[in-house]
């Protein structure tokens, strides 16, 4: 027996992160209550999603066109790169206005059990970019590029941080720090409040 059209639509929503069958059904029922015009607008946005929203070629933040707002700004500190898992982490930090450096979005964290290996993340891109940024800094001592590892304080995030520390070990002019202990183990940067982010940034080491 094939699924009803309702069930089929519910199953599509279930493919989104964190959405279970009941919540997916609620989404579909809520959409059924919407006027046709709103549904068409949503449909058009989805249809053109990949065409309309691109990733920044430098940091992999979302961008409507070319470099993202962070990379194209002249007011950012180009001696710091905050390395994060997802664009939503970047949003949480940007909202606080506490951080003035650059970002690098890895696209996830190393998790062999889920089949996520280093080559699936934008680690090679980070290596290339960090090398280029570090080379552009003045030659005198103390002007290193700081890579602030801000992957989540859970197993996959810690694995990723260790992998990166290893990868950049011994690189000249590149210094690695880890976001501080303000973040509780197992928590997510994405949901951290301003105070927590401030503490984590201040206590990086
Ligand atoms: Zn960017």
Can you describe this structure?
The structure is a single chain. It is built from 8 helices and 6 strands. With 205 residues, it is an alpha/beta fold. The chain has 2 domains: 48 residues, Helicase, Ruva Protein, domain 3 (Orthogonal Bundle), CATH 1.10.8.420; 148 residues, Dna Topoisomerase Vi A Subunit, Chain: A, domain 2 (3-Layer(aba) Sandwich), CATH 3.40.1360.10. The strands form 2 sheets. The protein has a 4-stranded parallel β-sheet. It starts with a helix and ends with a helix. The model has no long low-confidence stretch (mean pLDDT 91). Zinc ion binds next to loops. The site of zinc ion has 8 residues, from loops.
Characteristics:
alpha/beta, Dna Topoisomerase Vi A Subunit, Chain: A, domain 2, about 15% strand, binds zinc ion, about 200 residues, elongated, 4-stranded parallel β-sheet, Helicase, Ruva Protein, domain 3, 2 domains
Give the topology.
Layout: H1 5-14, H2 21-32, H3 36-47, H4 49-52, E1 54-55, E2 62-63, E3 77-84, H5 87-96, E4 101-105, H6 123-135, E5 145-149, H7 155-168, E6 174-178, H8 194-202
Parallel strand pairs: 3-4, 3-5, 5-6
Antiparallel strand pairs: 1-2
Domain Toprim: 79-184
Family: Belongs to the RecR family.
Protein name: Recombination protein RecR
Number of strands: 6
User: How far do the termini sit from each other?
Assistant: 58 Å
Give the biggest sheet.
4 strands, parallel
Shape: elongated
- What is the CATH architecture term of the largest domain? 3-Layer(aba) Sandwich
* pLDDT < 50 stretches: none
Structural class: alpha/beta
Count of domains:
2
Helix content: 40-55%
Give the count of helical stretches: 8
H and E string: HHHHEEEHEHEHEH
Residue-averaged pLDDT: 91
Family: Belongs to the RecR family.
Keywords: DNA damage, DNA recombination, DNA repair, Metal-binding, Zinc, Zinc-finger
GO molecular function: DNA binding; zinc ion binding
Zinc finger (C4-type): 56-71
């Amino acid at each position: 027996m094939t699924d009803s059209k309702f069930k089929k639509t519910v199953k599509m929503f279930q493919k989104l992160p964190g959405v279970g069958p009941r919540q997916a059904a609620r989404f579909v029922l809520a959409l059924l209550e919407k006027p046709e015009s709103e549904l068409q607008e949503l449909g058009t946005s989805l249809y053109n999603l990949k065409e309309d929203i691109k990733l920044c070629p430098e940091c992999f933040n979302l961008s409507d066109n070319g470099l993202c707002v962070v990379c194209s700004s002249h007011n950012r500190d180009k001696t710091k790169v905050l390395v994060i898992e997802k664009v939503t982490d970047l949003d949480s930090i940007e909202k606080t206005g506490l951080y003035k450096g650059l970002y690098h979005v890895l696209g996830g964290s190393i998790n062999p059990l889920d089949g996520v290996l280093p080559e699936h993340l934008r680690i090679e891109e980070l290596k290339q970019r960090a090398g280029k940024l570090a080379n552009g800094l003045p030659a005198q001592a103390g002007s290193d590029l700081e890579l602030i590892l801000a992957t989540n304080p859970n197993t996959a995030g810690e694995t990723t941080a260790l992998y990166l520390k290893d990868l950049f070990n011994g690189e000249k002019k590149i210094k690695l720090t880890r976001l501080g202990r303000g973040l509780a183990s197992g928590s997510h940067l994405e949901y951290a409040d301003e105070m927590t982010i401030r503490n984590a940034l201040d206590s990086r080491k």
